[in-house]
Amino acid sequence: MNVGFIGLGQMGKAIAGNLIAAGHRLRLWNRTPGAAESLVREGAQLAEQPAGVLEGAQVLMTMLADDDAERAVLIEQHVLERAPRDLIHVNLATVSVGFAHELARRHAEKGLSYVAAPVFGRPEVAQKAKLNVVVAGEREAIRQVQPLFAAIAERVWPVGDEPERANAVKLAGNFMIASALETMGEALALARGYGVAAQDFLQILTSTLFAAPVYQIYGQLIAEERYAPASFRLQLGFKDVRLALQAAEAVHAPLPFASVLRDHFLEAIAAGEADEDWAALARLAQRRAGLGRSKR
Amino acid sequence: MNVGFIGLGQMGKAIAGNLIAAGHRLRLWNRTPGAAESLVREGAQLAEQPAGVLEGAQVLMTMLADDDAERAVLIEQHVLERAPRDLIHVNLATVSVGFAHELARRHAEKGLSYVAAPVFGRPEVAQKAKLNVVVAGEREAIRQVQPLFAAIAERVWPVGDEPERANAVKLAGNFMIASALETMGEALALARGYGVAAQDFLQILTSTLFAAPVYQIYGQLIAEERYAPASFRLQLGFKDVRLALQAAEAVHAPLPFASVLRDHFLEAIAAGEADEDWAALARLAQRRAGLGRSKR
Amino acid sequence: MNVGFIGLGQMGKAIAGNLIAAGHRLRLWNRTPGAAESLVREGAQLAEQPAGVLEGAQVLMTMLADDDAERAVLIEQHVLERAPRDLIHVNLATVSVGFAHELARRHAEKGLSYVAAPVFGRPEVAQKAKLNVVVAGEREAIRQVQPLFAAIAERVWPVGDEPERANAVKLAGNFMIASALETMGEALALARGYGVAAQDFLQILTSTLFAAPVYQIYGQLIAEERYAPASFRLQLGFKDVRLALQAAEAVHAPLPFASVLRDHFLEAIAAGEADEDWAALARLAQRRAGLGRSKR
Amino acid sequence: MNVGFIGLGQMGKAIAGNLIAAGHRLRLWNRTPGAAESLVREGAQLAEQPAGVLEGAQVLMTMLADDDAERAVLIEQHVLERAPRDLIHVNLATVSVGFAHELARRHAEKGLSYVAAPVFGRPEVAQKAKLNVVVAGEREAIRQVQPLFAAIAERVWPVGDEPERANAVKLAGNFMIASALETMGEALALARGYGVAAQDFLQILTSTLFAAPVYQIYGQLIAEERYAPASFRLQLGFKDVRLALQAAEAVHAPLPFASVLRDHFLEAIAAGEADEDWAALARLAQRRAGLGRSKR
Question: What predicted TM-score, i.e. pTM, was given to this entire model?
Answer without folding.
Answer: 0.96
